Amino acid sequence: MNSENKNIVLNTKDLSIGYLKRKSKIVISEQINVSVEEGILVGIVGTNGIGKSTLLRTLGKMQPLLNGDVIFKNKNILDYSPSDLADVMSIVLTEAPASQNLTVLELVSLGRQPYTNWLGTLNEEDKGSILHALQLTDTEKLKNKKCFELSDGQKQRVMIARALAQDTEVILLDEPTTHLDLYHRAYILKLLKKLTQETGKTILYSTHEIDLAIQLSDKMIVMTPENVHYDTPENLIESNCFKSLFPDNMIEFDTTSKSFKVIK
């Protein structure tokens, strides 16, 4: 299905992001206008410090926006209570699990917290969602392992499984390929792509792996000091958007190979 024909699940209007310091606003990026369609994979790229993580945290209401609006499913994000937002949006940050002594099954089960009673009792629907999440991420065989026993790649898959168990329409991931080798970086991004196709969920992720993001993302948010661009990788390449990311005396973007090359 062509993404232009899909429903818009998340959009921003003249959004400014950054930090509040005492009574002043420190703006990192502004005039962000994107409309994200349902069921697609969206990569967020840019140089260090440009605001990728800040944008994700702002979209997930973990950090206050400075100006403009974030509209989620035709409703302002500010009008969602924490529990209501947890029903429709899940977030995977770069931090390690709070307790490394949890088993994989226990950690993934925490994704069902928005739906369980105050005792955290899992019903059959909860157990089915957990099992399905483990199967989708190929982590079922790890379910009895402790989190401290996992490799970095396995931890990332388990954290994605926890988000899937939460069963939300949108998943936000902050740098899910950090600390992984090339094979596992590609594996994780291919997994995210597969999940959008098989589950219809919308996934936004930040990454430094621009070359891989170009190959696997349906749409991309490219953050530069001057503007924030949102389009398909092909259109962004045609508009020379990637050529402005880095100093041209050091790194250049090759439109033929769709990759960055160091100038020797």
Entry summary:
The protein is 30% helix and 27% strand. The protein contains eight helices and 13 strands.
**Residues in helices, as a percent range:** 25-40%
Order of helices and strands: EEEEHEEHEHHHEHEHEEHEE
Structural domains: how many:
2
Shape type: globular
Structural class: alpha/beta
The first-level CATH class name of the largest domain: Alpha Beta
State the distance separating the first and last CA atoms. Answer: 42 Å
**Rounded average pLDDT:** 91
SS strand fraction: 25-35%
CA-atom Rg in angstroms: 19 Å
Strand order of the largest sheet: 7-8-9-4-10-11
Low-confidence spans: 1-5
Number of helices: 8
CATH architectural label of the largest domain: 3-Layer(aba) Sandwich
Number of strands: 13
Q: Largest sheet at a glance?
A: 6 strands, mixed
Q: How would you name the CATH homologous superfamily of the largest domain?
A: P-loop containing nucleotide triphosphate hydrolases
CATH topology of the largest domain: Rossmann fold
Q: Could you explain how this protein is built, in words?
A:
The protein has helices at residues 52-59, 82-88, 104-109, 124-136, 152-166, 182-199, 210-216, 233-238; strands spanning 8-21, 24-32, 35-37, 41-46, 67-72, 75-76, 89-92, 170-174, 202-206, 219-223, 228-231, 251-254, 259-262. By secondary structure, it is of the alpha/beta class. The protein has two domains: 3-73 and 169-262, P-loop containing nucleotide triphosphate hydrolases (Rossmann fold); 97-167, no CATH class. The protein has a six-stranded mixed β-sheet, sandwiched between helices. A hairpin with a 4-residue loop joins β12 (251-254) and β13. α4 (124-136) runs antiparallel to α5. The chain is globular. The termini are far apart.
